[in-house]
Amino acid sequence: MRVPILLCALSSTPAWAAVAPPLAELNTVGDAGACTANAEPPTAVAVEVPQGRMAVDGAVHVVGGGFRGFAVLADLPAGPVRVRAVRSTAIPAQEPYRPITLLRLIDPQGSSRVVTEMTDQDAPSQEWSAAIDRAEGGIWRIAATGGRQRDRITLDLPAAVQWGVQGEPTLTVTSSVPAQAWLWVPPGCQRLQVEQFGGQAGAVRVLNEEGRELGATALRDGMGRRLTVLVGDPPGDGLLRLDLTQAQGLAVMVVGAPGLLCPSPEAARRLRGGTVTAGGRVHASPLVARLRAWIAAQTPADLQVPPLALPTTAPADLADAQREAQLFGKYGLLGGVDAVLAADPAGLRSGSFNGIGNWTASGLAILAAFPARLNPLHGNPAVVRRAALEAFRLAADRLDGADLLAETDLFTGSTVYPVIHGFFMYGGSVGGALPWVADRLDPGTRRLWCDLAMAVGDRQADYQGYESNQWLHNLHGHLAAFRGTGERRFLGYFERQMRAFLAGAFGTDAKFGQHPAGFFLEEFGCDGNYGNMNLTALAAQLLDYRRLPEADPALVHSMLAGCERALRFDSLLWLTDRQGEEAGPTAHCSRRPDSTVVGANPAGVYLLRDDCALAKARCERLLGPGLALRHAQTMPYRAVSDADARALIAQGLVKRPWATQDAFHGGYQTGFFLHPRPATRPPAAELPTEASEGLWELPGMLAWKRGGLYLAVFHDVAGLAPGRRILGVMGGGPTALWTAATGACLLSQAPPGRKGAAEGPEQALFSGVYATAADGTFVHSGKVRTALSWVEPGRRFAIREPLAGGDLTWDYALGDAGFTLSVTFKAPAGGAWLTLPLTGGDGEAGPRLEADGALRWRAPGGTLAITGPARGALLTPALERGVRCLRLPLAADGTPLRLDVRAGP
Questions:
Q1: Lowest-confidence range among 270-279, 312-321, 543-552?
Q2: Average pLDDT over residues 628-648
Q3: Per residue, what are the HEC states of 853-871?
Q4: Which backbone phi and psi does 164 adopt, to 5 degrees?
Q5: Which of 335, 345, 562, 766 has CB 3.0 to 4.6 Å from 303, enough for a Cys bridge?
Q6: Are 234 and 216 in contact, with CB atoms under 8 Å apart?
């Protein structure tokens, strides 16, 4: 049996410390977060330890989402606890930002007593320390969290008779890991599996206490990166033995039981995987046991909220109607709150805590903190306790022994991505709700909530999720954790990552951060639905952050500039239909093809209306009077005038919609309306469609306005790597056309489904060229990288893209009263045609093909005309989303198809 060597002299060096075993490869698909893999395993440094101490060597192995680390659980006597960590790393020449690396001492109650940050390490090897002079006796957890892939971290800690080492969540098998490792299985365990990363089948063997190898089946996952050993009929409240003699350098993870590997059966039985048994059940950790104990201690009287007392009419002297209106509407703070308040507190001890909303706690906390005159729950102590209850229930249902908000069932989910929705839980409730009620909590509850927020926040220190918005949600959790706990390191997590996000530190060929054009990268492109989510999160964090005395003015400026860049990009697609409703294209959405590029929920624009002139303009003209009230009945912030706000309040007080909804939507709100509006506000900017003329060019995007006609062309996510699969549709065709009379008359639309490509002519809903390739397959433009070049600066540009073995060119000549589009395509293909998707017309006010072959759109106040060759032109009937397509055949010999597009009276 291999155990860490207990040395008696400072000159002694453990043999394992000098040689680094080959390590398992990074087990992600590009979702490792900030972690950068060391090109070669760093050279482990010899660690000398005196008598009475032990050394445990670990190596970092990352799983999806960037989770990595390991911990030693040791049964220590009362007295001082001093830990030294020696971290060996290979610092890359370039990386987005330094991956956060922590040394944590967690006491027997699950509280993080000391956290030493090892992030800013400039030498290949460096020592770090953490110490407590007077510590209680019991099972301590000494955790090394984060780091770069293949980092070597050696822990020098007090020797313990009973100890074990576990991955958080994956453990690289080094010489410090017992070659014959004992694993405790909790009672009631019905299914258990051991993940093996790297190596060949059989490198990890699972045996029972008698030494019989269990009938395990080795299965390789779909990505070919791991083997799964399925353990049938695991011994509940018993032991298993893992034979790791052939697994040096591989990584393992246990699912279904705590993955604590101990050198002896006695240690495994004493430590019980770090679990705590209380109240007749096994809890994953001391912290989870404390959460459940708090939940069980609540009585109906503690949580009783009297019926809501509200007037039937609004007082005439409301000082701020727009603020008061946030209580009403479907997603207002009172929306569906009765469903939460009516929950039977007597059932809280059942232990069944599934289905808890990720934002319920924050919604209740903000309700308790919201000082509106009409808010009947402001300052209500029962609502404050219910906010704590919802945060604790959510965490107790998901939190594992490594402080990971793991998915509820990794067997049916993915152990490659053990944490999927942790960004929502942390940013929404576990961390996000705390600052709103921290000063209203009793000391014991506040201490528990702070311990919870710190445990989750440290584990998710540089968690990005898998897309930009998820990273921002996690950053919101860090900012809230700092505001709620006062622990400075969470402000540091927030600031360094926010700088990286805004600077596009991961580059343009990425899923994280802001693109130079202004949009937010989601699955390597821009997306209206998630773009709005990103802008809302960024704006809300700007309002929260800049009020802090500790706020860095330079970062405040960068955050505001990032918001303005996003608004500038979006403003080029802020279009309206003939009725004045917002309308926009969908074709270059990357994740949500059913969402317009500008999206349906512009909360971020609302947040920024007092800081950014473009946001103010959109609120006044596109969200404002005449349309606002109907939308405000769902999203109350859209009542952007006092008159609309008062009308929404009046409706709410009469209809009492909160009493009829079965879902609480108040948690959607981020508390942004708690901030006072500044006395000085910018004037509204001129929107691009309002300009008499203009030319706006961003990377991959161009818009132009003249002669009453507005044209937008989104042709590329500039900076993507060659060959990168594009989920959206772009290319050189017109993305949008707009006139004041017709409204948005051409809107490029994503094809049905989520494949990002049309599978036949009937799905041709976006501007593009469609053809039959030489082999008979259906092909279309818009799925490859394109390049825009100016033929005549400011007057004529061309966009070229390959298609079906040939070349497609879109040539735009910009005139004083319109533009001319020439489309040239010559390739070994047949039946090629141009499609332009027309939308929004009906009855007499709509597009018609006339006898001369021109398409004319006649509407009160003006017309749009598209004139080209008459032969073969076709206007299809209405298809999905009200789109009618103008189809024009392309000459087989490559003769350009020329169209003149004009707006007129």
A1: 312-321
A2: 88
A3: CCEEEEECCEEEEEECCCC
A4: -160, 165
A5: 345
A6: no
Query: Is residue 224 over pLDDT 60?
Result: no
For residues 790 and 846, is the Cβ–Cβ distance under 8 A? Answer: no
Q: What's the rounded Cα separation, in Å, for the pair 896 and 688? A: 31
Within 410-520, residue ranges assigned H as helices are: 422-425, 434-437, 443-459, 468-485, 488-503
pTM higher than 0.85: yes
Q: Token pair of 837, please?
A: 């998707």
pLDDT of amino acid 684: 93
Q: Could you write out the three-class secondary structure of 783-797?
A: CCCCEEEEEECCCEE
Q: Is 253 left (phi over 0), alpha (psi -120 to 50) or beta?
A: beta
Which amino acid makes up residue 231? V
pLDDT recorded at residue 14? 34
Tell me how crowded residue 39 is: count the other CB atoms within 10 A of its CB. Answer: 10
pLDDT band at 774 (very low <50, low <70, confident <90, very high): confident
Q: Are 530 and 591 in contact (CB under 8 A)?
A: yes
CB-hemisphere CA count at 13 Å for 467? Answer: 20
Q: Are strands 163-167 and 238-243 parallel, antiparallel or unpaired?
A: unpaired
- The answer, yes or no, to whether residue 2 has pLDDT greater than 50, is no
531: part of which helix (H) or strand (E)?
helix 528-545
With contact defined as beta carbons under 8 Å apart, do 158 and 54 qualify? yes
Average pLDDT on 395-400 reads: 90
Beta strands 238-243 and 205-208: pairing type? antiparallel
SS3 95: coil
CA atoms of 358 and 423, how far apart (whole Å): 10
What integer best gives the mean pLDDT of the chain? Answer: 88
Judge contact between 388 and 233, C-beta under 8 A. no
What is d(CA 801, CA 553) in angstroms, rounded to the nearest whole number? 44
Q: What is the distance between the terminal CA atoms of the chain, rounded to a whole angstrom?
A: 90
Q: Is the per-residue pLDDT at 15 higher than 60?
A: no
On whether the CB atoms of residues 480 and 548 are closer than 8 A, the answer is: no
